[in-house]
Amino acid sequence: MALEPLVGLEVHVQLDTDSKMFCACSTQFGADPNSNVCPTCLGLPGSLPVPNRTAIEYVIRTAAALNCTVAERCRFARKNYFYPDLPKNFQISQYDEPLSYDGHIDLDVDGEQVRIRIRRAHLEEDTGKNIHLPSGSSLVEYNRCGIPLMEVVTEPDFTTAEQCREYLTQLRLILRAIGVSTANMEEGAMRAEPTVNLRDPETGEATPKVEIKNLNSIRAVFEAVQYEIERQRRAVAEGRENELFQQTRRWDESNGVTALMRRKETSDDYMYFPEPDLVPLEPEREWVESIYASCPELPAARCARFCEQYELPEYDARVLTESRELADYFEEACEVFAGPAKTVSNWVMGDLTSLLNEAGIEISASPVTCEGLAELLTLIEEDVISGKIAKDVLTKMFETGRRAREIIEEEGLEQISDTGELEAIIEQVIADNPGPADDFRAGKEKAIGFLIGQVMKATKGQANPGMVNEIMREKLG
Ligand SMILES: [Zn+2]
Question: How far is the CA of 276 from the centre of ligand 1 (A)?
Answer without folding.
Answer: 19
